[in-house]
Amino acid sequence: MNDKPEKLIDKKGLRLDGRKPEELRPVKLEVGVIPNADGSAYVEHGKNKILAAVYGPREVHPKHLSLQDRAVLKCRYHMAPFSVQERKSPAPSRREVELSKVIKESLEPAVFLEYYPRTMVDVFVEVLQADGGTRCASITAAALALADSGIPMRDLVVACAAGKVDDTIVLDLMDTEDKLGAADVPVALMPNLNAITLLQMDGILTHEEFESAVNLALEGCRKIYTMQKEALKTKYVSVSEENKEEAEE
Amino acid sequence: MISVVTRVKQKQIAQLIEEGKRLDGRDLTDYRQMKIEQGIIERAEGSARVLLGKTEVVVGVKIEMGKPFPDTPNEGVLTVNAELTPIASPAFEPGPPGEESIELARIVDRGIRESKCIDTSKLVIEPGKQVFVVFVDIYALNHDGNLIDASALAAVSALLNTKMSNYEIKEGEVKIKPGYEQLPMKKHPITVTTAKIGNKLVVDPNLEEEEVMDARISFAFDDDNNICAIQKGGSGYFEPQQVIEAAKIAQTKAKELRKKLNW
Does A68 touch chain B if contact means CB atoms closer than 8 Å? Predict the structure, then answer.
């Protein structure tokens, strides 16, 4: 990158996009966007645009993966070739394979998989546009899609990153901050159980910085959680109103 | 993964850990017996074998000339790959790398990359055109749990043991000269994995413990004891204070290991 900014945080303490250190990017959540899917959600988080769809519980394929005591949760995180500056090959990269795994493991604790033995639940995440923090936005979207599918869950899952940019601990890093910043700590949370289901980090942090980054990320998670609940309500309130209208007719 | 531990044994392991004990007699924060051998593969530019209890990992380092990434023209390239060979466990099958091995390689990669362990600026032959590419290949030979720490340890040990050929540029061509020099190393990252079993945290889980654990978390530390990489794995969760506790335990263990290894 040639237009590398010298400072990621200006004298007033504001970030490249004008945010304060502990401020989230604008988040928009929508539930039930793919008619064919059993559950689906769309997330805009800053410039991230991400779709998640859930299919299942359905027959396990291939069959030998089937589990006798619970459902298999499968997850595929995938980036569209046009989602980034330089075209990304549609073949799954090593990064995508790893992210599919950690996203799956962040959702598994929340789903009552034991209710559906010998079946499979597929979670598909497509990143249409990426702007840093896609794994977190993907988890937020996937959890909404799972909830929308009606599969019983212990809790929702919501994710947000915090990190270190210049010398400041900041919330919700966007692409440039992620690439040029000192550290990035994505965290996923089951808010009611107060349980962390994803935690990763790259960069350099002291123990104290790590602790405050985790706490800040958890705060971010709780803010997005409120929006998640709102998004679910919005869909089902409108569904119930439609039903009411039909009944009146 | 195929569960080879019977339910009875699983219960026993979990119960013992609840009481602060482990089936193999270790304390909750003890590592298994550790053994490192360097330079075991003469054909490789660097190599090491690590034994962690019965877990065995070999890492070979090969160095080739290649192109730098367009966004880092003044840096050499690091590539980490992991093979969970079918030799190592009845649960491993031959074939293209799966999630497990890709995750393992990427955790080790992150520890090395983020700690800036290799001085990649010294691996440049011609900026933007030709650099040295360092291939770190992790080979699991026996899987008895905690492949992450064993592989990370073996990778850094192998890098410390890596020699590069001397070269000169004659009429625009790179010529290899006789003699070797050490791969330029700046840092020595150490990775420590803890597993959550019941409500307890145990360091260096063996395979039986991995089969009963809820989740694991790995921390890599650089020479100044800063955290440089983290990865949570497994289908369970951690409470926030458990994460902080795990980080503290890992930091203490990393310090101990660093002293022992003289890194």
Answer: no
Neighbours of B17 (CB within 10 A): 24
Say whether pLDDT at B143 is over 50.
Answer: yes
B16-261, CATH topology level: Ribosomal Protein S5; domain 2 (3.30.230)
The string over B202-219, giving b where at least 16 C-beta atoms fall within 10 Å of a residue's C-beta and e elsewhere, is: bbbbbbbbbbbbebbbbb
Q: Give the residue-averaged pLDDT of A152-181.
A: 96
In the structure, how many helices (H) and strands (E) does chain A have? 4, 9
Q: What is the DSSP letter of B96?
A: S
Q: Does B3 have pLDDT greater than 70?
A: no
Q: A67 in contact with B at a CB cutoff of 8 Å?
A: no
Among 1.10.260.40, 3.30.230.70, 3.40.630.30, 3.10.129.10, name the CATH number for the domain at A27-227.
Answer: 3.30.230.70
Q: How confident is the model at residue B5 (pLDDT cuts 50, 70, 90)?
A: low
Give the gap in angstroms from C-alpha A203 to the nearest C-alpha of chain B: 5
Average pLDDT rounded to a whole number, residues A38-62: 96
- What pTM value is reported for the model? 0.91
